[in-house]
Amino acid sequence: MWLLLGLLPLGLLTSSSVQLSEDAVSDEVRERVGTTAAVSRVVVDQQMLSLKQLVSAFAQRPEIAKVVTSSAGGVRAGRPPSPDVETAMGRYRDELRQLRAGVSGVIVIDPEGYTIGAAPPGGLPQDFTATDWYQAVLVRNQAYVSQAYTPPRGRIRAVAVAAPVPKAGGIGIAGILVVVYSLEAIQDFTYEAARAQGIRLLITDQAGVLVADYGRKLVGLTSLREDPRVDAALAGRRWSTDYMGYDGPVLSASEPIPGIGWTVTAEVPTAEAMASAGRLRTSLLTVAALVALMLLAGLALQIHTTRDRRRAQRALAVYADALASARDEAVSASKAKSEFLAKVSHEIRTPINGMLGMNSLLLRTRLDDEQRHYVSTAQDSAQNLLRLLDDFLDLSTIEAGHLEVSTLPFDLPRFCDELIAPLAPHAYRQGLWLTLDLADDVPQHVAGDPVRLRQVLSNLIGNALKFTFQGGVRLEVGLERKISDVRAVLRFTVTDTGVGVGADDSEQVFDIFRRVDSPITRRTGGSGLGLAIGRQLTELMGGSIGLDSVEGVGSRFWVTVPLDVITWAPPEVEALRDLRALVVDGTPDDRVLTARILAGAGLRTDEAAVAPGALAALRRAAEEGNPYDLAVIDLDMNAVAADEDEGSLADAVLSDPLFAATGVIVLIAPGRTRHEWPSAPNGSDRSVQSVTRPASRRRLLAAVENALLTARNSPVAREFAAAPAAPATILVAEDDEVSRQVARLVLEKAGHRVEVAGDGPQAVRMVLAGDYDLVFMDCQLPVMDGLAATERLRREEGPPRRTPVIAMTAAASPADRARCLAAGMDDHLPKPVDWQDVLARIPTWIKHEEARPEAEAEEDLAGIDAEAEEDVAGIDGLTPEELAEIAQAFAATVPAVRRDLADAVASGDLPKAAALAHRLAGTCATVGESHAARLCRRVEDLARDGEGGPGLTGATSELDTELDAVTARLGESPD
To answer: What residue stretch is flagged as signal peptide (predicted)?
Structure first.
């Protein structure tokens, strides 16, 4: 009985060990086969995609379009290609062979399928209209890899890579360039994989025809469509399971190649794969037999002794401790995985930022078209990699539970404008419209996490643009539910007219690493993380996200987020009430939206869709003595609807004296303006305002006020016009020489009297001893900073007197503004300073003789935009001599600060490094170098967070490179 009980654990242990060993070997082989299939997919995909890019770039050459257009008529008339065309074909083939081994022929045809020329002649069938590549290029207007075929004089299969040859104007197809490419390199790759790793590879084209095999044995066009592994890959699915092959059972894995629609299948015979497991089984049984003999001998001698029982109990305790330790290690490993991913992502960002910076510098140099294409491709790839790292970092942070949402005040309309603006050029380049529609009842200022909300919405709009090929995308912002006067739920809806998503896939798109499988998603790619991260971020903000979609019609993603409400929508502008406006736009959605915004501000609006109707309405109103106060016109609209050569409608309105009382605003599509900028005739003081599509309420109403101010006889001009501001005596307290020079030149040019102070105590003495109307105070003054100087000034001035003090600082966060107001300052200007805005606000500041109430300060704080630091300094309008003074001051002061910064970084004095970087940020922002200012703030942030070492050193080095470029630009002679 005791002997049987002793042998039973050994038998179970041996059996489980054998099973575990077989499972481990099987899993290892399966993983190796799957990895080989995945790597092979990437290799083949990269080879064919790079070939498509090469052929596409080659087809863009103007000389090829010239050959097509000059020879097409003769080909249709039956004349053979001219000797010049045949020579050009041979040259093209030789050049392509040098760029890519495996190119065996080149042929050029016109859009109707007539052959323009070929090298060598007769390399492809002559009836090209029936080929798959001919139809694909005409429909898609992009490069295409054909199905495989076997050339007449060879065993190695080949494909035809076809690309459209654009017309000279860039619109339409002049012809098609076809390159015959031998698949010998791919065949060699499969052979080497079988010889070196013992893994067989089978590669098929999009029709399931075998293009490469592991043994170089199959000839002709062999179809593998009946193979379920190939069928699954052709359908876009991965295959990884056992399969009964031609030579017996195999462990197999197949993968789709999304870029070209091919498949790759890897397999290993099961007998070969499990041979090592059989040998291991024999060894384990031998060892088990020896252990059994030893156990029998031991049990026979000691089974009845207490010592053996205690020894067994101790062994079980040790085993239990080992299990507990293993469990703890597994938990720690899972946590370490997330932390490791976060740290690695941070470390990789530094070299990628270096790549992006160097590529940006390279793009500014003189490059030919081919070099610029290569550099731009590298830049786009680095940007994509950076976005992928950001996704991984966000995912790991969320999984580790370290991501926290913040609550910051921000201006909702401005947030939406800045969300849409970077995406608009991309949309209009694709021929799509992009519209922003804010409901009238949404709040003006809210509190939430604008950074995370921007991340979610940017991903949704970017996805909509990626999968939309005609029509456009609309972002709608509305009030979902008003909880109270200080709390509301907003609904953000992104609607597109793209490919749509099926009902079965609507929930899967939000899963991690899951994408709806279709030829379009395989072509556009993506990490499959964006929507999953968007859902988790939305839930962290207390909201929800969802999708309503119809496949082939379009999609509508919606996000609801609860936000604190600081101020609701602003009231109507009284100065605009009952003024007349005419909206002229050929796009119905944009026209209706623009008219609705103007009507909501109090204007009486009419609409026109074509130029003749608009001119007739304007002329009729002017002749009746009641002219329109404002005309909002699409800049791309011709003055005569049917005449493409006619000037713009905006020019016609500005040049007609009958419309002199009408202010003009033009709507501009980014990157697609057909007409020159409109201007009034010589001697007229009329000007034109512009709004870049998509139009928004905030920007449109600002342009309306400016346009009405410049309309000479407009009734509203008198209401908006203000008496010119009297010259003021202003003190500029600033220790940076460049910032002082800019402030002094701009203010003196506007007619003000300016004095300067270099430190805090001097500024206080000058204000107390003088009679200044206004003080601009830098917050980082030496000896005594601007905050302390203002507090001392308020104490010593006494209640009857209060000199307005305006803070100037590169610290632009809401908390920084709050500190300035708490110290007694009257307003806060983030660097770079918009001096045109400052000049307009000087009369308002001078009138403020008393400090603003705390409630008013908090209301202004709500309007601060977290990204105000990205604005550009306003130093336009200065003479070349004044700009030379600023450049000289920059060159005189910056080198010493740079040396001190480098010494502080080298010695590890991080507080000093942060202060010097802050000072440099203000200097760079003052001269309009926003990129250099951002790099300075990055160095400042790293130093303040105590992150020294390679990260800070690399950021400082990147800043030095940019400052050298800034110094060189400022030193150039003005035109």
So the answer is: 1-20
